[in-house]
Design brief:
374 residues, alpha/beta, 4-stranded antiparallel sheet, globular
Amino acid sequence: MQYVTSSEVRTVGVEIRVEGLTKTFGRQVVWEDVTLTLPSGEISAMLGPSGTGKSVFLKTLVGLLKPDRGSIWIEGRDITRLSERDLYEVRKSFGVLFQDGALFGSMSLYDNVAFPLREHTRRSEREIADIVHEKMEMVGLRGAEDKLPGQISGGMRKRAGLARALVLDPQVVLFDEPDSGLDPVRTAYLNQLIGDLNAQTEATYLIVTHDINTARTVPDNIGLLYHRHLAMFGPREMLLTSQEPAVRQFLNAQRQGPIGMAEEKDADELAAEAAIGVELPALAPIPPQLVPSDGQPRRTMRPPGQWCREHGVIPPPGSFQSLVAGTPPGTPPVTVAPVAGTPPVAGTPPVAGAPPVAGAGRRPRGGVLPWARR
């Protein structure tokens, strides 16, 4: 596979810079002093135990909730200080996929997807029809336009909600637990759809999820909200090799660590673990990042092992050894030398000098995705 360098990346998404963000409800602090940057055109995931304010964070990003302190910068404007009229215009650059799809039950899928166009644009019905059919084809729902939300499966409702989120060609798409209520197979299909659509639209994506497989394989960046703070945010490989206790515990789905049933373990539980010398399980191997259905890496994807090599971090044994989508069966593992002074990383797919993928180039912005026909 052929990866592009940072100088070659062209995106239509926008960078979102969050600085010192704090949100409370009365005396309850949801999170405070959250600072991070969502890179333009990349897929980021926000994780955290239940009740840590992940959905509140999404609502604050889109301006539905006002923070107590801090700034959210988008294209040179702090949206926390905009008037309602200006904020209304900014929201048009966002698409949101809600947990349950949030479809209008009395409307057909066609009318649900068309709703933002009718509300926010002056397009003719003929133009609206062309756009709706395009977006429904992108998510594999062409032919289901006349169905009501109650007549389709949960996975189809998610895809219809996603088509509606994309109908205004947003620069930013927010996903609020897109895997909620889906079985593992449908979650895998939805993850593939998210990667494929990001490759086509090159918008900035932020996914809130509890699904560890999604977090480990889909995003370019991962963040973890824990104990009213942002524990860490950065490139996928940084968090998957992190020794920070909460990050390590959550991303490896382990019981050993500071997170308990009530968000955090009490002092007695932690003392008991320390007294008996609980040994932390080994870090799980880093899986290959999900590649779009056409086998071409997304423009913002980093070569496997790049962050580890640049920072002298040795990934867990077995990392990057699984076949990446589009790699011919039987391809032998390749050893890539890391930074000087560290042992080579076995099993890392080739980065430099790899032959180009047939048909490589800019993807079409429409058209049905192959798997979506299933």
